[in-house]
């Protein structure tokens, strides 16, 4: 009786190749399973994908409802982080200017000051908003 031995022609994965394949599979699975996040803030639902026009409209409506004499902290709480925040002094008086985007001038994906409405605070109180109020400080 004769016994014939054959060697398998199939190649087996080395431990390093197997580990690499597992890492690749895990990476692809993670990126495919990610989704959209929605932030809930009190009564407001704000998607992380809020369009520029929605943001501008919301900012215009919120600014229209502001009251003179408001504190910066209450405005920041209501409107969130400004696009620009500046401090300046004129004749010994401290002013703070918060800029919020309210219009689109350039369709470039960037926010510039000419696309924002300035909110002007004097001594910690809101004294007005808009370009005319800002021009008053720069004269």
UniProtKB/TrEMBL annotation:
Residues 1-34 form the signal peptide. It comes from the Bacteria. Keywords: Signal. It holds the Pfam family DUF3192. This is DUF3192 domain-containing protein.
